Amino acid sequence: MALKRTYRWQNWSGTVSCEPHHRSRPLGIEEIQSEVLRCAEEGERLRVVGSGHSFSPLCYSDENQMSLDDFTGIEAADLERRRVWVRAGTTLRELGTLLFERGLALESLGDIDEQTVAGAISTGTHGSGLSFGSLSSQVTGLKLVVADGTVKTLTRDTGAELLDAAALSLGALGVITHVELQCVDAYRLHCQSFRAPLEETLVRLDEYLHGYRSFEFFWFPYSEIAQIKCMDSTRRPANLWQPAKLASDLALENGLMWALSETARRLPALSERISRFAAQRVPVSQSVRDAHQGLATRRLLRYHQTEYSIPLDRLPMAIRQIDRLISALRFRVHFPLHVSFVKADSLWLSPSYQRESAYVAVHMYRGMPYEDYFAAVTDIFDRNDGRPHWGKQHDKTAHELRSLYPRFDDFRQLRQEMDPRGLFLNPHLADLFDIQRR
């Protein structure tokens, strides 16, 4: 097991950094157990880090940090039941290829596929479509090394209640080493991107949501334009060479947006005009892709992000409120809001717990002031029963979270039983769960 004594870690967006005094990269279960026991014996804390795509300080540690980058791959596959056991450090992109080779696919995937499997389920990473839950809801089994160094196995078949707690647990219950995922047969997607008026999009929400397998939209502040992205299953052959999608992903959604964002950062007074300009250049394209290649989009720009889940029926009102807010307070923002949809689930800490949800993600280009903008938009989410996405920036306290997540205190009690000394805590989690730091 490789150890590093001097190391500076930074998350993808650059919003969180730390210098753990000890970093490990275990190669197997025994080395993971050994590191957990060492930290326990020395009275120190341990946080596991994935690809760093969380905007919140979930992985922050100035003590011990563990990376599972060397613990990857599919360990077992039950093709008849379409279930696979995956090592925790496997990225979603790697997993997509491995599943495709076995004739399988994930039923849904988020906008980014660079996260590790364990990191993605631990924060509630999700795609879009009311027929699908978050990636955490696709978990049928877990193996984790708990605070006493033993390996605990949880499965949907033998302990659904406990799995509902552990499948989305912020890394607070132990080190997840393996994840069993319920998959589906491999499929292809007909992907479309086009422009539509924002108000028309809100009026036709039900039509879009039930007319396509997957539907999401982006809205550019100060404009009346939304970018619609919708997908349907198809038997048509995949387009192996797709210049339109390549141009959209790299040139328009990354290259052009980078140039516009740098202009807005240097000349923030132009943000309103830049947003309107970008809205007029929303790519109009169609492509056919295998699912593991069609669901995610390459994101090269770095930004700040907050995201909240609100009840589905509150979305039109919330978007109109945000529109009026931005126009009234003249926030200097050009980055679009991203709206996606997730079905209800039973996971204790899920933002979609027992309700169909619309997720609204709000962005600000890195290097531009975002605090006042995020605070004002968060007030609107609060008025609409918003629940924060755990991997995004938010300032919710345990008192507030208790009223938002019906099983929040159940999770706090379980965490205390499984890790009474707080081996897997950091300052951020201690604050979230209202635990006095030792």
TrEMBL record:
GO molecular function: D-arabinono-1,4-lactone oxidase activity; FAD binding
A cellular-component GO term for this protein: membrane
Signal peptide range in chain numbering: none
InterPro entries: ALO_C, FAD-bd_PCMH, FAD-bd_PCMH-like_sf, FAD-bd_PCMH_sub1, FAD-bd_PCMH_sub2, FAD-linked_Oxase-like_C, FAD_lactone_oxidase-like, Oxid_FAD_bind_N
Keywords: Ascorbate biosynthesis, FAD, Flavoprotein, Oxidoreductase
Domain (FAD-binding PCMH-type) ranges: 16-186
GO biological process: L-ascorbic acid biosynthetic process
PROSITE patterns: FAD_PCMH, OX2_COVAL_FAD
Pfam families: ALO (PF04030), FAD_binding_4 (PF01565)
Annotated pathway: Cofactor biosynthesis; L-ascorbate biosynthesis
Top-level lineage group: Bacteria
Family according to the record: Belongs to the oxygen-dependent FAD-linked oxidoreductase family.
Protein's recorded name: FAD-binding oxidoreductase
Species the sequence originates in: Solimonas fluminis
